[in-house]
Design a protein that fits this description.
Shape: globular
Number of domains: 3
Strand content: under 5%
Radius of gyration: 24 Å
Oligomer: single chain
Number of strands: 0
Structural class: mainly alpha
Helix content: over 70%
Distance between the termini: 98 Å
Largest sheet: none
């Protein structure tokens, strides 16, 4: 079995991107990697429950990646996933034919001066955009080890993504050792993340990178542990997100800085000094947000301080128009004049669209129906939290836990960002997964942490000594 040699034209007219040999090759790769996983798990994880979580989470990731790939291949006839794979395969073939081109390809930039490669890449759609080019390079690198198999490359994306998320999940296990299953539910059982965070997509790479960034930033700033490699991992994954979806960092950084300052504030013993820290936290968060928008945004003109609202407006109107022309599942938040106040006024409806829509009656196809069922379940869990737990108790718990604050603030902020700029449910279900699992984790933990506390109070009351005011005779 050799590597496929196929032209860009043949790729562009291909209806079925999956070659017959892949159905035989995929089980071989899955078997070999599952054996390797079994060895790793047996060596490093003695807890049977943890082992079960690993096997279950990995299985769901693999199923999700293959599911979305098959849907795109046979239903959408390629789509974004097919294009990423196609053009990544072209790069892989070029490396195999001319190995001396490898470094030039991986350092290639659309704005660079390598005219020879530019001529070779004529007719390719995604290679001339920085945010998609990095996906093609990653796909090409993986293709070198998968015999250019569409399905096996998808499996690699799912497998690597699982371990990146698992790294982050183990951190949460340390923080909430008695609530592991709820963390697993949020980050491995969430249907949107299973499907749209497991295939050959920007979203898969970005969420995996975000998990790695948070893990090592937490180690440095919260647990106060530092290693040179931590910095490397942060810079490497940060560069990936910065290149692909800058707005993820624009939402994440101020939320993380807020969590760090809240954590240090909790360690201050003096009540007056602790109270004075609150305004400082707010100001620092605003400063961090401003610096990110002005400095990072300057690297991508459309996210600059002057154009960020205009960029959001253009993207929203473009996706909305495409959806209407193609009879897609669209939504509308109402009139917006492009001012900051008009965006602020849409915070509730944008968050609602991201987290709780499409409603069941808005689903127009089986894929949207699955998304509507998931949104309905999350709405039920949110209402249940508000109804079953006293609001003041929820706020009291939230005030004492900087991690829950981060989960909730980041989940809501990112939901607002994508809700106000997307206007298409099909795209929204993909874009929202960077913040969505954090919101799910916040809701589950806020509910069950209080349940645990309520059980403790009941047990104390049951075992408390009985007192009486009756006087002895």
């Amino acid at each position: 079995m050799g590597y496929q040699k196929i032209s860009a034209y043949e790729l562009s007219i291909s209806k079925n991107l999956i070659a017959p040999y892949e159905y035989f090759l995929l089980p071989v790769y899955i078997f070999l990697f599952l054996v390797a996983t079994r060895i790793i798990v047996e060596l490093f994880y003695k807890d049977q429950t943890i082992r079960k979580y690993i096997y279950t989470g990995l299985t769901l990731k693999i199923i999700g990646g293959l599911f979305v790939t098959l849907i795109f291949n046979f239903y959408y006839k390629g789509g974004d996933i097919g294009t990423y794979y196609n053009e990544g395969r072209i790069l892989a073939n070029l490396i195999l034919e001319k190995p001396e081109y490898m470094l030039r390809i991986f350092f290639y930039s659309p704005t660079g001066g390598d005219t020879e490669l530019k001529n070779l890449f004529l007719g390719m759609h995604y290679i001339n955009a920085t945010d998609t080019l990095i996906i093609l390079k990653i796909t090409a690198l993986i293709n070198l080890f998968t015999f250019n198999s569409y399905l096996v490359t998808t499996f690699f994306f799912s497998y690597i993504s699982f371990w990146c998320i698992w790294k982050f999940v183990t951190l949460l296990f340390e923080i909430y050792p008695n609530h592991k299953k709820y963390i697993i539910w949020a980050f491995f059982f969430t249907p949107s993340l299973i499907v749209w965070g497991s295939g050959i997509l920007k979203d898969t790479i970005c969420f995996s990178s975000l998990c790695i960034i948070h893990y090592y930033l937490y180690r440095i700033f919260i647990t106060k542990k530092f290693h040179f490699m931590y910095l490397f991992y942060i810079l490497f994954t940060g560069y990936i997100i910065l290149t692909i979806k800058l707005y993820i960092l624009l939402a994440y950084a101020p939320c993380f800085s807020f969590m760090v300052t809240q954590n240090y504030k909790a360690g201050i013993q003096n009540n007056l000094l602790r109270a004075m820290v609150a305004p400082f936290v707010i100001v620092l968060t605003m400063v961090v947000s401003y610096v990110l928008v002005t400095q990072l945004g300057a690297q991508k003109e459309r996210f600059s301080n002057e154009k960020i609202l205009q960029t959001a407006k253009i993207q929203r109107e473009y996706i909305h128009a495409i959806s209407l022309n193609s009879s897609g599942s669209t939504y509308d938040l109402g009139e917006m004049d492009g001012s900051v106040l008009s965006y602020i006024s849409k915070i509730p409806t944008a968050i609602n669209a991201s987290l709780f829509r499409p409603y069941l009656w808005e689903a127009r196809n089986p894929i949207m129906l699955l998304s509507a069922l998931e949104s309905s379940l999350l709405l039920f869990l949110t209402i249940r939290l508000v109804y079953k737990r006293k609001f003041k108790n929820t706020l009291a718990l939230l005030a004492t836990d900087s991690n829950l604050q981060f989960f909730l603030i980041f989940g809501l902020m990112f939901s607002f960002f994508v809700g106000v700029t997307t206007y298409n449910f099909g795209s929204l279900v993909r874009y929202k997964i960077q913040g969505y699992p954090f919101y799910v984790a916040a809701i589950l933990l806020l509910y069950y942490l209080q349940e645990e506390e309520n059980k403790k109070i009941k047990r104390k009351k049951m075992h408390a000594p009985v007192t009486t005011t009756e006087q002895p005779l």
